Amino acid sequence: MATDLARFRKDLHQIPEPGLAEFNTKEYIINAVKHLGCTIHEVGDTGLVLYFDNHQEVTIGFRADMDALPLEEATGLDFASKNSGFMHACGHDGHMAILLGLAEYIHLNRTGLDKNVVLVFQPSEEKEAGANIISGSGLLEHYQVSALYGLHLWPGLKPGEIYTIKGPMMAAGSETDIIIRGKSAHVGSAHEGIDALEIACRYLADLYELEASYPIIHRRLLKFGALNSGSARNIIADTAHLSGTLRSYDSETHAWFKAHIKQIAQDYADEFDCTFEISYFDGYEALINDEMLFEAVRQAVPGIRQLPAPVMQSEDFGIYKKNCPILFAFLGLGNTAPLHHPAFDFEMGLMDAGLDYFIQILGMPSPKNL
C-alpha cells in the first residue's frame, strides 16, 4: 500500500489548515473513505469518526490528528503547501495517510478481523485540545471502544522503528500567561513609576530558581519563551507580559508549582505595589500509557522498542484516557529537521512501518481478553 500512503500524504500536505478550520482536509478524508463501507460521523465542524462494523463483540480505535501549523514552508518539495502561511510541519499529514491506509486495509480484510474498528480523525491537536471534541461526543462510549491507539512521527529516533513506554510518556502542559501592572513614568523621574519590566525580570529569575529547587526525581519544566514590555527606551514600562509553559507528569507537581508561582507574585506585589494577573490554559493532560496495553503490544509486535524516558513535549491524546485505555507510540524518522520547523520532512517509505504497526495491533487478542 506504499503508493496509496504516498499519494495520501502528498495530497494532504498541499492543503494544510489550522485547528478547527480543517474543512478541505475533512472533505478529502470523506471522499477517500466513502466507498469503504464504514459509518461516517462528522463531529463538530471538522472532526470525523469512522466505524467499521465487522459484527464482532469487541471494538478498538486508532486516532490521527488533522491540523497544521502557521509556518511558511521551506522544504522545496514538489508537493509543498499551497496554503500560504500554513504547513504540515508536525507530521499530521503522515498520521492521516497512515490511518487512511489502515481504513483501506480494514475494508479489504474485514472477513478476517475479530474486532470492529473506530478510526478517529481529530481536529486541532496543536491548539485548543481538539481531543476534547471527540472525547465529549459520546461516540467512543457508543461504540464501546475498548482501547485507543495513537502514533506520532518522531525525529531523532531510529528510522522505521516503533517506540513506546509504560506509564507516563508525554507531559501535561499548562500554557502560562502572567501580566504585571506597574506605573509609567519618564526615566528621569523613575522614582515616581513602578517598573513592570524590572519586576518581570526579577520575577522570572525567581521562577527559574524555583524550578531548579524542585526534587530532580520529578520530571518537570517551567520555561518562558516571551517577555513583552515597554514602548520607549526612556519611559518606565507600566506593564509586562510573560508567556510560557508549565509541564509535568502528575497533578501534585502541577499544583505545587502553581501555588508557588502565585506566592512569589504576591511577594512582589506587596513589595512594589504592583499587581499580577496569572492565567493558565490547561488543555493538555499528561499522556499516560495503559500498562496492560503496553505489555500486550510489547509481546505482540516484534522489534518494538522501549523509549528511554518520557518526553517533555505535550500531546492531547492523553485526554482519551477518560474514555478508554490508551497507548501512544513514536515512529522514528532518523535525522530530520525538528518538528515545527519550516524545513521538516520525512522519507515517505517510513509510513509503511506505522501502518504495519497498526495492522499488527489489529491482530492482537481483544483487549477484553488480555
Would you kindly provide a written description of the structure presented here, covering whatever features stand out?
By secondary structure, this protein is an alpha/beta fold. 30% of the residues lie in helices and 26% in strands. The protein is built from nine helices and 16 strands. The protein has helices at residues 2-13, 23-33, 92-108, 131-135, 139-142, 196-213, 251-272, 291-300, 351-362, and strands spanning 39-43, 47-52, 59-65, 116-122, 145-154, 162-164, 167-170, 172-181, 185-186, 220-229, 235-236, 239-248, 275-284, 287-289, 305-306, 326-332. The strands form four sheets. It has an eight-stranded mixed sheet. β3 (59-65), α3 (92-108) and β4 (116-122) form a beta-alpha-beta unit. α3 (92-108) packs across α9.
Note the main sheet: 8 strands, mixed
List the helices and strands in order: HHEEEHEHHEEEEEHEEEHEEHEEH
Radius of gyration: 23 Å
Percent strand:
25-35%
Structural class given helices, strands, pairing? alpha/beta
Total DSSP helices: 9
Q: In a nutshell, what does this entry contain?
A:
This protein is α/β, with parallel strands linked by helices and 370 residues long. The chain has helices at residues 2-13, 23-33, 92-108, 131-135, 139-142, 196-213, 251-272, 291-300, 351-362, and strands spanning 39-43, 47-52, 59-65, 116-122, 145-154, 162-164, 167-170, 172-181, 185-186, 220-229, 235-236, 239-248, 275-284, 287-289, 305-306, 326-332. It starts with a helix and ends in an 8-residue tail after the last helix.
